[in-house]
Amino acid sequence: MSLTMTPLIASVLHSGGGPLTRREVLIFSLAAGAVIFVAICRGIVEDWIERTRGRNWPTVSGVIDIVSVALIPDDTPGMRAYPDLSYYKATLTYTYNDPEQQMGDYSRDFGNEADAKAWANSYKGSTVMVHVDPRDPTCSVLRKEDL
What we know:
Elements: H1 7-15, H2 22-52, E1 59-72, E2 87-97, E3 101-110, H3 113-121, E4 127-132, E5 140-141
Antiparallel strand pairs: 1-2, 1-4, 2-3, 4-5
């Protein structure tokens, strides 16, 4: 069985753990930059999908029946040197009929509990327009602009 080694691994092993070379720093920087770039692009694409999802679906009237606020704890392991990343998720649960009664929810994140509760409670009992997937009436979206 023959083991082959890439030139990069060979150069790292050959250097014997001494100071980093310019080439090693450059490769590490490019790799870190690529990871950051992918993370940013993923966030942009997810935001775009959320903004456009269901916008052309037909709408039906729905009612926000249940509102809730939950603490989402910061569970980042070993990162206690950084600020607490916990947040509050306010959720509006709505019902609609198409043709049978269906249920869906819409959530928004907040930095403190009082703001989350005030926002959620302001919608309790409200009538909203819900976008329903014409191929699957159990799938719906409550869009931010319809609140």
